[in-house]
Design goal:
The chain is mostly helical and 75 residues long. It contains 4 helices and no strands.
Length: 75
Amino acid sequence: MGVGLCGKMMNSEDVVPPLAANMSAAFKKVCGAIGATDPALTELIVIRIVELAKDGVYDIDELSSRSLSSLKLAG
């Protein structure tokens, strides 16, 4: 997950290194699970992970599963 895209959605002081690492790991996990390579889809994944983190979800597995669930509902 690029810092540039994440930085546009959250203030840099909002993302501490462990959270950023968890968000990145969740992003990779979700993209791997669905084979996401399309930039529009990967951006949706980033947006969802950032929204979840803003809501206080920090666990990699929780970020991943909730992101996948929301993508399935949207699709």
